[in-house]
Amino acid sequence: MLILAFDTATDVATSALVADGDVLGERVSVPRSLLEDVDALLRAARVEPSALDALVVGTGPGSFTSTRIGLAVARGLAIALELPVAGISTLDALGAATDNGYPVIDARRNEVFVSGPRAVHPDDLELEPGVVCVGSGAVRYRAAFERAGAVVPSDDDPVHVPRARLHAALARDFGPADDLLPVYVRAPDAQVRSAA
């Protein structure tokens, strides 16, 4: 099965072309470059879009706008190419990068997104001593997590990036693009401001 996978929920966008579990290519950039990355992956592998069997997209949580970029691209490609799609939590993909990794995504507003999914202040998390925290939230709030006894790999460790190849590896249930649902956890900043 030839899968195009991508995730744009965080500040780092990842994309990968995976054939029967083998990674044919992978890119890391920023969400606004997603279509360029997809084009580059397909060209490098000499694969026509019509050869794709399925898509996998990260559903968040993360940045509201960045998550919407990924889902919009997934819906557009799925409809245009008549492909089934699977949505995978960005937290699940991060957690799959290490054995027993605890995924933590920077949620801004002095919070992190963690499994549940939920948004919490880093100091409010109860962590097992020695747990390995991975993701942008782990990097940003390293001091808080290390005070709690957690281990945070170095900032440049690849385990902090939600790799699209991990999304592809986790995908099991494929369906129509209309079934894709984002994981936002909380209302977008614009709604919070207008309500105040």
Description:
By secondary structure, the protein is α/β, with parallel strands linked by helices. The protein folds into two domains: 2-91 and 162-195, ATPase, nucleotide binding domain (Nucleotidyltransferase, domain 5, 2-Layer Sandwich); 98-158, 2-Layer Sandwich (Nucleotidyltransferase, domain 5). Helix content is 31%, strand content 24%. The chain is built from seven helices and ten strands. The protein has helices at 34-45, 64-81, 90-95, 136-140, 142-147, 164-170, 189-195; strands spanning 2-7, 13-19, 22-29, 54-58, 85-88, 101-103, 105-108, 111-114, 118-120, 132-134. The strands form three sheets. The chain has a five-stranded mixed sheet, sandwiched between helices. A three-stranded antiparallel sheet has the order 7-8-9. A two-stranded parallel ribbon has the order 6-10. Helix 2 links the parallel strand 4 (54-58) and strand 5 (85-88). It is globular.
